[in-house]
Design goal:
17 helices; 2 domains; alpha/beta; Rossmann fold; four-stranded parallel sheet
Length: about 350
């Protein structure tokens, strides 16, 4: 999202400052500041020396980390824009800003004791609401896609695109195929966020920064198939949970995620027809990034576990370490222990 957002903001006349962990070449209207965005002294220095009016915060915090710094942003800025997520919501159709959140409506006590992503985001939202300040805005994107960011179910580009382009099958639970989800092109999310900047209608408000188009995962599979030849194998939910995080599957991907974006459209003056359709946007991004996707490094543990389900063995090309890690996850009962891997690596001169 940030790639498109900085371009959008520059086109609207803003000076944009981006914190980065590494040096980056200068761009028109964009200034890069090297440092760790989670380091509070660094953040204080940026807020003091740059003195921005607005911060759009893409950092991922746990609840305790956010508690240590949200007042710093609220005290120093005209507007603090917090990236939350549509995942905070329980199942509701359609999902509006006032829809019930998991944190407030679910009875799973074991889950509520965790600081899992959706719960953490909701707790951070609550801190802003209880702050007594009005200079915050909560942004809730849905699943986004662009450049090298592609998802199918809970699997990322380093699984789905890697497997598709190497002639291997991607898996999904049978029951998930019929669930509806919302995938928004990152460029369209950027248009919405940029028009909420210093917009008085956005202060002390939350927004679903999403398209209102939705499709089933089965329909999305067809888009991937037409673009990069992705083949899908239906598996049981228990098999899938052995590869993907339980809570993201149960409390997001197994829900129908049909989003309502009327609030953000009203606040920004945008219209739904300005946004890319999923068929056009997803296929276009996959094809325009086809060359880069062919060289993507695989998620070795997940690919090995999927190969086990599919009954195949296909070691990734590359390092000896990568091949050994693959075998460790592909044949877990054989027991290729980390110490064994270290011993074998020393044997071939790898420290």
């Amino acid at each position: 999202m940030g790639i498109y957002l900085r371009r959008e903001l520059v086109s609207m006349g803003y000076d944009v400052y981006v914190t980065s962990r590494r040096e980056r070449p200068a761009e028109y209207g964009v200034h890069y500041i090297v440092g760790n965005g989670k380091d509070i002294p660094f953040v204080r220095r940026v807020l003091s020396e740059v003195a921005p009016d607005v911060a759009i915060d893409f950092m991922i915090y746990d609840t305790s980390e956010f508690a240590e710094r949200y007042n710093l942003f609220l005290d120093r800025l005209k507007q603090y824009m917090f990236l939350s997520s549509y995942r905070v919501f329980n199942e509701d159709v359609p999902l509006r800003e006032e829809s019930p959140r998991l944190l407030d409506s679910i009875a799973d006590e074991a889950y509520l004791k965790t600081d899992e992503y959706a719960l953490c985001k909701a707790r951070c939202e609550d801190m802003l609401r209880k702050s007594g300040k009005k200079n915050w805005t909560i942004l809730r994107p849905s699943i986004t896609y662009s450049t090298m960011r592609f998802q199918f179910g809970c699997l990322e580009a380093n699984v789905i695109c890697y497997r598709a382009l190497h002639g291997q099958t991607v898996i999904i639970p049978h029951d998930m195929l019929t669930k509806r989800t919302t995938m928004t092109w990152s460029g369209d999310v950027a248009k919405m966020i940029a028009r909420l900047v210093l917009n008085r209608a956005s202060f002390a408000e939350d927004f679903n920064v999403v398209t209102n188009e939705n499709k089933t995962w089965g329909e999305i599979a067809e888009i991937y198939k037409s673009a990069i030849g992705m083949k899908v194998k239906e598996v049981s939910l228990s098999e899938y949970l052995g590869i993907c995080g339980e809570y993201q599957v149960r409390y997001d991907r197994m829900f129908n995620r049909v989003m309502d974006n009327s609030k953000v459209l009203a606040a920004t003056g945008l219209r739904q027809e300005y946004f890319k359709s999923l068929a056009e946007g997803l296929k276009g991004e996959l094809l325009s990034n086809y060359g880069s996707l062919q060289t993507v490094s695989p998620n070795i543990p997940q690919n090995a576990k999927i190969d086990k389900i599919c009954g195949i063995v296909k070691c990734p090309k590359g390092s000896v370490l990568g091949k050994l890690r693959y075998l460790q996850f592909r044949f877990p009962n054989v027991g290729i222990a980390p110490k064994t891997i270290a011993f074998l690596l020393r044997g071939v001169g790898v420290k």
